[in-house]
Amino acid sequence: MIFFVNGTIGMGNSGVEHAEFYRGKVLTQAGLPFRYLFYRLNRDLQAPMKRWGLANDQVINMWEYFVLGEDYLKHGVQTFYPQDTKLVIDSTNTHRKRDTYTTSGLHVVDHMVKHADKHKKTNILLVGSNHVELFNMNTGLKMADFQFYDDQHRKVIIRNIHLYHQAGGEHLFFSNGMQLIRYFFERLNLAYNEKNIYMIDRGIDPEVALFNMHSATTKVIDVIHADQLNNRKDPRYPLFNNYNEYLLTHMDQVDKVIVATERQRQDMLIDFPGHDDQIVTIPVGGVRDNPTIDLNKRPGDPIKFVTASRLAVEKHVDFIVKAVVKLHDEDGVNLTLDIFGAGEEQKRIKQAIEDGHAGDYITLKGQSANLDQEYPKYDAYLSGSYSEGFGLTYIEALNAGLPIVTFNARFGAQELVTDGQNGFLADFNREDADYSVDQLYQALQRLMAADYGQLRANTVKLVQRYQDHVIAEDWRKLVDAL
Where do the Glycosyl transferase family domain residues begin and end (predicted)? Predict the structure, then answer.
């Protein structure tokens, strides 16, 4: 069995989760069995499963297993319940106890406490869960409890974990989450008594747990979804990205390391010479087989731009807004920009739209689960990211025949966009936002002056390598080799 290892999923996700969804699609095409494996407690897992099309028997959540029992590992949730939440609020209007009744059949009791913020200097007290109990709604039995602890350095972790009525009626105790996750993987290996392949997409904890278990029947693949370095250009480094540091200092403990682009593979081989067979390139996203692109389409009036991402600081969507405003105001281009996504930077982006007096032609569209249906409505795709391990939205936009305007960033942009052929790459400076905005504006000017029909035609050639059946075969070869 193949397991995709991640913390959890939500109604809105990052590129990591969408890469998992795409991998599930092509593994299905390749006839390879797999499960989504989540190790964090999610009080509303069924809703995002439904939103993103994950079948009930494709998902295993660690806490649902501990509460629902052994059959759950093979068959998923069998009985569904109405979702409900009840709160106990004290005389100071502070939440003290929260009872969550999940669709999956877990009764989760959160005991809340007020506490100081250990990570910021503030007089404001925070309210959070301190002690959590989990009950099986069908039997009424208490199946687990644990404590949250806000560590000065590691932030919130779990400790003092009790599991009740486990296999054989055992009462088990784990002092920390690492021990618990390792036990969970041991139970999986017993249930799926075959060669199991764990593909770790997110989390140092599962790396620590699984690297110890690496064997002839337990294979470990680590998937790198971003630049493995903080900055290759900085002469004081290379310094490993914090999220990849444990992997990159324990390369002997994994069978394969997957990167999304050949450029990143070659870059990794600079630091890991001789690991040619271990580091493998498989794109984390692709396009449907034999895509149809209307080569006769020309830009509309107004020309319609689109961007889609988490509205996070590293995506620099406000830079896109400012560059588009310059194109509109200084060059007189009749245009629109639609921004798909949600996140913590939404306020900053709204302010950039207001400052540019652009509310009549730049629109925040919110999240969409059907971007592949949206892209054909537009004329070009814009990105402001300084770093993309691959760029799932890039390949989706190219699949619709859209030229891309983005920064000349490692690795996805450089791999997927050939400057002047199927898009335009802008220079950037991490320390000078105005410079980056101006470079993006100049790239937009180049797009407006280009042969649009030729740009669209060139996208057809590029996406052939990224068709679903090609990537499905990449995964099949990798799994067969293990």
Answer: 297-435
Contact 96, 88 (CB under 8 A): yes
pLDDT at 232: 67
Asked whether residue 230 is assigned to any structural domain, the reply reads: yes
> 168: phi > 0 → left, psi -120 to 50 → alpha, else beta; which?
left
> How many CA atoms lie less than 13 Å away from 389 in the CB half-sphere?
25
Measure Cα distances from 296 to 381, 452, 461 in Å: 18, 10, 16
Residue 205 to residue 207: CA distance in whole angstroms: 5
In a domain, 288, yes or no: no
Locate 243 and state its tokens.
């999220």
Q: Which amino acid is at 153?
A: H
∠ CA 119-43-13, rounded to 5°? 70
Please state, in angstroms and rounded to a whole number, the distance separating the CA atoms of residues 441 and 434: 11
Structure tokens at 349: 């982006």
| Tally of domains in the chain | 3
Range of the domain at 119: 84-170
Q: How far apart (Å, rounded) are the C-alpha atoms in residues 437 and 427?
A: 10
| Residues 458, 392, 450: CA angle, nearest 5 degrees | 30
**Residue 303: phi, psi to the nearest 5?**
-70, 135
Mean pLDDT by 10 residues, the chain (482 residues): 95 86 94 96 94 93 96 93 91 85 96 74 70 96 92 79 91 94 95 93 92 89 86 64 87 94 92 95 85 81 94 92 97 96 91 95 89 90 88 86 93 90 94 95 96 90 85 95 90
Give tens-digit pLDDT for 258-271. 999 999 999 999 98
Q: What is the DSSP letter of 376?
A: G
Considering the domain architecture, whether residues 238 and 343 belong to the same structural domain is answered as no
Domain end residue (candidates: 150, 170, 190): 170
